[in-house]
Structure formats: C-alpha cells, structure tokens
Amino acid sequence: MIENATLIKQGAEARIHTAPFLTRTAIVKERFSKAYRHPILDKKLTARRVNQEARCLFKCRKSGVDAPALYFVDTEDSTIYMEFVRGTIVKDLLVTNSEYIQNKGKQDELAKKIGIALAKVHEIDIIHGDLTTSNLMLRESNQSLVVIDFGLSYISSLPEDKAVDLYVLERAFLSTHPNSEEMFTEILDNYQKTYNASQWVLSKLAEDYGDEREVWNVQCGTQGKVIHRASMFKLNEEVTLASTIMSSSRSYNTKVFYGPPKCEPERSEEIIEKGCDMEYWSDPVGVKKIER
Amino acid sequence: MQTFTLELYPTRGHIHISFYKNVTNAEELRKRLLAHDQELSYAFIDAKVVMDRFQLLIAANDAVHHELHSLLKTYNVHSEIVYNLSPTTNINESLRRFGISNSSTSIVVVKVGGNAEEVKSHLSTLIHGDEADVGEFSNSVDISSIKKYYKIDNKVTDQKEMLDIIVGSIAIKSVS
Amino acid sequence: MIAIGFEGSANKLGIGIIEHSTETGVVNILANIRHTHVTPPGTGFLPRDTAVHHREHIIPVVKEALKTSNVQIKDIDVICYTKGPGMGAPLVSVAIVARTLALLWNKPIVGVNHCIGHIEMGREITGADNPVVLYVSGGNTQVIAYSEHRYRIFGETLDIAVGNCLDRFARILNLSNDPSPGYNIEQHAKKGKKFIELPYTVKGMDVSFSGILSNIETIKNEQSCSPEDLCFSLQETVFAMLVEITERAMAHIGSKEVLIVGGVGCNLRLQEMMAQMVEQRDGKVFATDERFCIDNGIMIAHAGLLAYRTGFITPLERSTCTQRFRTDEVYVAWRDAN
C-alpha cells in the first residue's frame, strides 16, 4: 500500500484510502481477493472490474459529467487512484442540512443537478449500477454535482438497464429523504429535458416498476372487452395521446405510438398486456361432499 | 528545477523536472536521442504540450510502474515518460508529438533518479538555453495542440477540467 | 394444532404433517414423505408427465404420511397446498387433491407461496433469526430479506434459475437424473481439477446464467476438458455469482446471517463457499439438509399453519394455482414489523 494512506472505508469488495499522491491527495481504491472464489476466476474478475471501473469513470469525466479525475490504474495491485473530491455527500445533505430539509427551492436546485448529471451519464451508455444518494456529492468549490463510485458500472445502451438505475435512485430517495417524491419527480423532469432518448427509459421504468408510482392505465379493446391494457408512468401528454388513439381504435391490431411527439413515429409498439398471470382453475368433478 | 518523490516507488529515486526557454540546440539534442546517446538519460518534452507538472508526474509514475513490472513499451523509463504522455499507443507518433522537435525552443526535462545538483549542472551543459522556473511552462502551452492530441471537446475551456481529462487519458492508456 | 401440506410445484411430490404447540410454539414434524418423478439421462421433466406422476402417486403418499404420523383425520386442523409459483399442470394436479380432501374432510384450506414455505422452514430448522435468504432451486434464484411484513427481493436471476442451469448443463453432459442432476454434478465436480472460464454475469444484485449454457457446447467441443472439469468450473462460477450477490445484500442491509434454502442449497460446495464469505464478515451461515432443502410437503404445512394461526384462510372458490407468484406479494402477518 502507498505511504501514509488512511483507511476511510472498508466495503464488501474494496478498501478505500486517502493518501498524498504526486503533490495532491488521492482516493485509493483497492479491490481485494475473495477467499471463496477460485484463484483463476478471482484474478480475472478483479482485473476485469478494475479496468471496467476505470473506463467508466474516465468516460464520464471526459464527456463532461463531473466525476473524480482518474490518476493512475495499478492493474497488478488491483488499485485505482483518483481525485479526492472535497464536498458533501448528497445523502448527508438531505439528512442533516436544515437548508436542504426545509427549503423547496434548494431541493429543486439539487434535483435539477442530479437529473442533468444522470442524463449525461446515460447519454453515453454508462449504467452506474449503484445509484444511491451516498454516491452523489456536491463539490465544495463550485457546488457542481459529482457522481462517484463506479464500482458496479458497465456499458449498455438498453433502456431497461438505464431504468434500473433510475429505480435504484428512486428507492434510495423514498427510503431516506424528506419530500422525496417531489424531488424525484423534479429529477425525472430534468432527466427527460436533457436526455433525448429518455422516453424509452421512462416507459421501461413505468412498465417494470410502475406499481410503485403514479401510473396511468391505458386500455384498448372492442365492444366493452379489454384487449390491450398497459401501465404507463404519468409524465406528459404522450400518455393522453396514446390513450386517445387506443380508445378511438376499433381493431385488435392497433399500434400505438408513445414516443416523443416531435419526432417521426419510427418506433411503434403494441401495448403489452400486463398483469394477467395464468390462472388455473378446475373443479373436483364427481366428488360429493359427504356428511360425517 | 523541482524535485519530487513518487509515493508508490520511493526507492526508485527522485523525479526532477526542469524547464528551459530560448533553447538553440534542440536539433543536436534530438539527433543524439535518436542515436541512443547514453549521456542523454532524460525525457525531453516539448513544452507546448505540457500544461502542468502534475501531468508530468502522472506520466513518470506510470513509466516507473511499467519499468518495475517489466512492462516498458519503449527503450527505457525516460522514453516511456514521453510515450505515456500521449493518449495513443502509436509509439512513433507519441514520441513525435510529445518529444522535442528540431525547432523546439521551450523544453521540459524529466529525470528519474540521480542527485538534484548533479542533474541540474549536467543539464546546463547539455542544453543551450535559459533555465526558467517550472511554474512558468504553462505560459508556453499550446492549447489547440493539447486539445487535438488529447481529443478534448472544444466546449471545454476550464483549465482544471482540461488537466483532469489529460491525466485521465494518460492513466487509462495502461488499461486498454 | 396440526396441518397437512401438499407440494407438487415441480417434479417432487411431497406430503408433510406438522404440529405446532399453541402454548410453547414448539414445532413437531410428524411425517415428511416424498416421491420424485425421475426422467432418463439427457431429458428433463415435462409438465404433463409430471402431473401424471403426481396423480398416480398422491393417494399412496397421503396414506403413508397419515400412517407415519399416527394422526387421525379428525385431528387435522387445516389443509395447506402450494398455490405457486411452479409448473401449471403439476400444481393443479396436487391442488385438486388438496381441495377434494378439504371438502371430504370438511377442513379449511390455505394456499401457500412455495418460496415462503422454503424460507419459514429454513428459519424453523436452523434457528436463524433474521437472515438474508438465498433461495436457489430449479425454478427460483432470489436474494431475499425481511422488512415490514414482507420478504423483499433484493436480487434475482435475470433469466433462468440456477437449478435450471445446472439441470440443463447435466443434460448436455448426459449425466443421470437419479437422484437429481444437481447431485450428480456435485459428485463429478469433486473430481474436477482444471478451471475453465465460463461467462460470469453479475449486474448489481442480479445474476444471469443463460450465457453459460450457450457457451458450454462450444467449450465442450473446442477444449480438451473432462465432464468432471466442466462440472467443477460450472459450480465454481455460478456459486461465486450467488455468494457475491448475497454478500452485497448483507452489506446493504447490515445483516450478519445467511440462510440458504431451496434444492440447490443442499450443495455442500455452495455452503462451503458461503461460509468462507461469511467468515470474512464475522457472520454465520445456516443451511438445511436434503430433507428440507429439496421441495417437500412439510414446509408447505408449516408456512400454511403459521398463516392459519393468524386467522388466514383461503376461501374454497379462490383456492386456485398460479404459475407466477412473487415472494413479496405475501403479507407476512406472523412476524413483527422488523
């Protein structure tokens, strides 16, 4: 280990230190091996994760997301050296800072920063993988929102993977913070404004996790019989648009477009039937109830 | 000249950084480098592409790390420093862009190991020019070359952000 | 109070009879009878054939359970059966018998979530108080923790269950299904030496196994490796994934206990790896043996009786089966909020 290092956190997979490094202070994140894993697997996995974390971290920093600057990757010792960011963890801010607990303006301002940062992260197809309020900071010098800990990050363009990021963040907000619902709505609002392809992510969020938030049920059918039913996250007019098309439709094969209104409807989708688990039901035929 | 210690490799010796302006014998130095003259056991870097000493220290740290693990891509730890400064893996291009050219007049020198006094006096006999304060080399930086070589978006104007991207590019090079 | 439990969500038909002392809370297992539908090597069990198997054997198994337990029909308080999740046809074949007996014997009936059965039985047998639960079987792979009257799912498989992965792997290698493919993989793995890299997919607290199966055919043909080596590498890979997500859940909620349930939970290598992980965290692993790990009727009786004691009864007209039935849908009335 580097000279004069101070352990600040012992996690399940890594130890985090601070240490003086080439005239600055660095965060030193050292992944350790796991006794339960086969040595070959352990070595490959650790190396792969160190590389993946370093890549995701740097890709974010380079694309204008405020994240710790990458200093040095020691593949041989499974250690990443990065910038030590001076600032406050968002979780602490929302729990202990009275200004953030009481002032809606402050909350909205923070939510806006979070929404924009997330949009930028997803725009370059990075999935953070552990998006809690403990992994977001406000930089002391310029109050910029810093995304930290890319230990579980990976690259993917799938809307469902991005939706999981949002879902994890939502859970983190709902479980720990005051006015979390308003704040999370504000986050999504800014996320949507900043990220062009946010629609697919948000509809995935509604589809997969819709039961936990305000949802519009959109139904489609003929002669009073529901053929298609979909749950959507209530966000904007798109839902209304979709439901209008659906309710005026007469045919089973109605395709409903629910993308952004401005662009060409290149992607149309059959609304997926939701919530109909197969029910098996059969009567015990031929058995009479016998009085005893 | 400034002298530093690598926290990770304190026994490898100090890192010395000097800066020379108004250099007149760059062509001669370059010839001797190409001939692998053992007397020139230094990294000679074109000051145009150096923004901060931190950038040099990161490249030097990487070079010493490579040397220690027998991972050097170039001849020695000094050429490795020049190579490391570049974000690409093309050795010729890296040395051409970040090393000195015949017309260089501002030169940054990095030396791994050795006694500070000896390094200083040896350099003054090698280089025909004026030694200047290390803090001054940011005056001779050519931002457009930096942006081009490190592929930095034109929207980025903040020097600190630029430096973050530069050191990140150097660090990520050994990962891919 | 005495309950009889009917389980048949997959290829095991199990009937169990359990007694809870209403004063002391002591649990007494009176009978735990099982009959397994075993198919030839290289084949899996099909829903239809499995249902036929269950129908053929259920009456003798019920009779045997009653005989073993020495319980009179009049002493039974409640009939419990597996409502889901599982394969449709086998579930229905067993549920019909449970309902028929409820009508014949004039007893209340309780539909039980199969996963809750595993969890409650595991807690009862091992004495684990509030563990992170790793539920691993042919149909399920979940990391679960309790909070506020629900067993909440922290991580799960994104595609197939780990047991399903092992079964299909065994089929590709043409291993015997007797007593179970997983058991034979475990025995083969003990003789394996060489580690062959297989796809390792963990996303946060979720895992994915399908990549392994699509890879195995090519690996089998390309590399010179024995079935033993393949079994060994398979176990090392998939179990490492499971231990990793369990550790994440433990770190996340700050728990020091792990309970492994479900058919794959009898695997000693998995238990050993889990123990190594937990040791680093200063915690404790709880696991059960094959009597309770593998699907059985007693766990259904136990979980059903816990619910029944809080006043829960499934109305006869709603005593249906469902193939999908998530663990967190069940309101756990019998435990404290935390």
TrEMBL record, chain A:
Q: Which EC number(s) does the record attach to this protein?
A: 2.7.11.1
Question: Which keywords annotate this record?
Answer: ATP-binding, Kinase, Nucleotide-binding, Serine/threonine-protein kinase, Transferase, tRNA processing
Pfam families with a match to the protein in the record: Pkinase
InterPro entries of this UniProt entry? Answer: Bud32, Kinase-like_dom_sf, Prot_kinase_dom, Tyr_kinase_AS
Q: Which GO terms of type biological process are on file? A: tRNA processing; tRNA threonylcarbamoyladenosine metabolic process
- Reactions catalysed according to its record: L-threonyl-[protein] + ATP = O-phospho-L-threonyl-[protein] + ADP + H(+); L-seryl-[protein] + ATP = O-phospho-L-seryl-[protein] + ADP + H(+)
The reply to whether tRNA processing figures as a keyword in the UniProt entry is yes
Q: What class of enzyme is it?
A: transferase
What does UniProt give as GO cellular component? Answer: cytosol; EKC/KEOPS complex; nucleus
Its recorded name reads non-specific serine/threonine protein kinase
Q: Which organism is it from?
A: Funneliformis geosporum
Question: Source organism lineage?
Answer: Eukaryota, Fungi, Fungi incertae sedis, Mucoromycota, Glomeromycotina
TrEMBL record, chain B:
Q: Which controlled-vocabulary keywords does the entry list? A: Nucleus, tRNA processing
Q: Which compartments is it annotated to reside in? A: Nucleus
Give any single GO term for biological process.
tRNA threonylcarbamoyladenosine modification
Can you list the GO cellular component terms from the UniProt entry? cytosol; EKC/KEOPS complex; nucleus
What single Pfam family name could you report for this chain, choosing any that match?
CGI-121
What Gene3D superfamilies does this protein's entry cite? CGI121/TPRKB
**Top-level taxonomic group:** Eukaryota
Q: Does the keyword Transferase apply?
A: no
| Known function | Component of the EKC/KEOPS complex that is required for the formation of a threonylcarbamoyl group on adenosine at position 37 (t(6)A37) in tRNAs that read codons beginning with adenine. The complex is probably involved in the transfer of the threonylcarbamoyl moiety of threonylcarbamoyl-AMP (TC-AMP) to the N6 group of A37. CGI121 acts as an allosteric effector that regulates the t(6)A activity of the complex. The EKC/KEOPS complex also promotes both telomere uncapping and telomere elongation. The complex is required for efficient recruitment of transcriptional coactivators.
Annotated coiled-coil segments of the chain? none
Which InterPro entries has this protein been placed in?
CGI121/TPRKB (IPR013926), CGI121/TPRKB_sf (IPR036504)
The family classification in the record reads: Belongs to the CGI121/TPRKB family.
Q: What is this protein called?
A: EKC/KEOPS complex subunit CGI121
TrEMBL record, chain C:
> Which SUPFAM superfamilies did the record assign?
Actin-like ATPase domain (SSF53067)
Its top-level enzyme class, in one word, is transferase
- Pfam families in the record, alphabetically? TsaD
Q: What GO cellular component entries does it have? A: cytoplasm; EKC/KEOPS complex; nucleus
Q: Which UniProt keywords apply?
A: Acyltransferase, Cytoplasm, Metal-binding, Nucleus, Transferase, tRNA processing
- Quote the catalytic activity from the record: L-threonylcarbamoyladenylate + adenosine(37) in tRNA = N(6)-L-threonylcarbamoyladenosine(37) in tRNA + AMP + H(+)
- Per UniProt, substrate binds at 135-139, 167, 182, 186, 267
User: A single GO BP annotation from the record?
Assistant: tRNA threonylcarbamoyladenosine modification
| Record note on cofactor | Binds 1 divalent metal cation per subunit.
Q: What coarse category fits the chief subcellular location reported for this protein? A: cytoplasm
Instruction: Name the PROSITE patterns for this protein.
Output: GLYCOPROTEASE (PS01016)
Where does the chain bind a divalent metal cation?
114, 118, 135, 295
What's the cofactor? a divalent metal cation
Give residue ranges for domain Gcp-like: 29-301
- Reported EC number(s) for this entry are 2.3.1.234
Q: What subcellular locations does the record give? A: Cytoplasm; Nucleus
User: Can you name one GO molecular function term for this protein?
Assistant: metal ion binding
For this chain, the family text in UniProt reads: Belongs to the KAE1 / TsaD family.
Q: Tell me what this protein is called.
A: N(6)-L-threonylcarbamoyladenine synthase
In its UniProt entry, the species of origin is given as Funneliformis geosporum
